Amino acid sequence: MVFSSITFLFFFLPLTLVLCRLIRPVSWQNAVLLVASAIFYAWGEPRFVPVLAASIAFSYFCGNYIARSDGRARKLWLIVGVLLNLALLVVFKYANFIVDNYNLLADAAGVRLFHLAPIPLALGVSFFVFHGISYLVDIYRREASPARDLASVALYISMFPQLVAGPIVRYSTIDQHIRRRLLSPGRCSYGWKLLVIGLAQKVLIADQVALIADAAWLPATLNALDIGQAWLGLSAYTLQIYFDFAGYSNMAIGIGMMLGFGFPRNFRFPYVARSVTEFWRRWHISLSAWFRDYVYVPLGGNRSGTLQTCRNLLIVFVLCGFWHGASWTFLVWGLHHGVFLIAERTLLKRALGAAPAWLRHAYLLLVVMTGWVWFRSDSMDQAMQMFGILSGVLAQSGDALLFRNAVNPLTVSAVLAGVLFALDLPRRLIGAISTHLPAMPANPASRVTSELALFSLLVVALSFVASGAYSPFLYFRF
Questions:
Q1: Catalytic one among 177, 284, 324, 337?
Q2: Which pTM does this prediction carry?
Q3: Which of 128, 155, 160, 421 is the most buried (most CB within 10 A)?
Q4: Are 285 and 265 in contact, with CB atoms under 8 Å apart?
Q5: 316 in helix, strand or coil?
């Protein structure tokens, strides 16, 4: 089930919210949420429900044994729990990739090949496995207490707003909300606003600019793009992936608030950053925090000198790349960011510090956008072809009919709106104007205007949902 679908927006979500408002006590609300989450997950991928259930069971039982044990036994149960969760990730995400690459080497060496039938990617496996590992490690570190029952762990890992694409939430963050929560009108109102904004980001911007981005990467189109069209296609994808994922995150956080849960913010206008280091403090914040706390810091972080820090950053971003997908292009994308992060700590540190703000921002956008080429491409060859066109090395006709058809007033308007809002220009402009105006008393009419604008945005977004085709969120692939 997709957040931006009629089934979810008009039936599933309203029914879940109403039941959670009417039912008491909180344990019954939790039961409703568990059933709702199971339906949500099974709606499109019922065959993977046992995979999700296995992760929940591994995390719950190993977490209890960690809490009850001491010394080596405590560490052993942590290793067992982490390995069992990682095994799910390897089998349902990386098994075919591993076998395919083994067979390439085996064929070259004349060794017998290994046959493995294609294993489909389990929906949300990257996210619920990371939730399970986070739960176990926090108990081991005594930063969280084990859940009182299996249902609490099940709700933490499978709660439908953050189940398939995050944000990645620590158990200690929502433990108290699982046991007791207050559904205040103010939080519900703010959650509703986030839901509407996220829906608009998805269907009014991400889905529209996707028409240009998808057309640019079609194999037939790619063979005819000229340099200008290639940069437009890359710009469209740069906006698509941001508004698609930020839209999902805002909807997830908003739904969580309406249900009485507090999920962490996942994006803070990453494209306004002026370095790759700053970008990763603003992009997919919950994933960055996960890798920092559970990989980077245990490796030694930045405590052991420059060389070890560079090694740790490279390890983290290789893993981050592979976490996104079982493909060499994702590995290169991770290396791309890791190398620039290392460069900013060493070679580029002084130059970036002395450069004007506009130049640092241009540098960041160039690094991130060229990184998205690796991320979007289906193969290394396709990525290299796109780089050739972007750089002007491959001079092509520009006679790409499908691409030119995708560039129309609606999609171009979405690109322009995406640029404005990705760079936070409307809010910054209003803020700049306000500083030169006298302070105005609170005006009830302004609140009414704001609510009407939000309602209008909702109506427009819903009209696109009603008339559009099925469009899953990009991070469902990961």
A1: 324
A2: 0.92
A3: 128
A4: yes
A5: helix
Please state the separation of Cα 458 from the chain's center in Å.
23
| Mean per-residue pLDDT over the chain, rounded | 90
What secondary structure does DSSP assign to 145-190, as a single string?
PPPSSHHHHHHHHH-GGGTTT-----HHHHHHHHH-----HHHHHH
User: How many Å separate Cα 150 from the centre of its chain?
Assistant: 27
Cα–Cα distance measured from residue 396 to residue 220, given in angstroms and rounded to the nearest whole number: 12
The CA-based diameter of the chain, rounded to the nearest angstrom, is 80
Work out the pLDDT band at 453, boundaries 50, 70, 90.
confident
Half-sphere exposure of residue 304, counting CA atoms within 13 Å on the CB side? 13
284 is catalytic: no
3-state secondary structure of 386: helix
What percent of the chain clears pLDDT 70, i.e. is strictly above it? 95
Tokens of 165: 């694409």
**The pLDDT of residue 336 is above 60:** yes
C-alpha dist (Å) from residue 360 to 18, 92, 274, 422, 432: 49, 40, 5, 17, 22
Are 81 and 314 in contact by the 8 Å Cβ rule? The answer is no
Identity of residue 439: A
DSSP 346: T
Question: Contact, 127 vs 166, CB < 8 A?
Answer: yes
CA distance 202 to 7: 16
DSSP 8-state code for residue 292: I
CA distance 310 to 316: 10
Rounded to 10°, the helix 125-140/150-158 angle is 130
Q: What's the sign of the alpha-carbon dihedral 176, 182, 186, 187?
A: positive
The crossing angle, in degrees rounded to 10, of helices 171-179 and 150-158 is 120
pLDDT digits (tens, 9 = 90+) for 82-110: 999 999 999 999 999 999 998 988 888 88
What average pLDDT score do residues 302-330 get?
Answer: 92
**Is it the case that residue 417 has pLDDT exceeding 90?**
yes
Q: How far is Cα 333 from Cα 267, in angstroms, rounded to an integer? A: 19
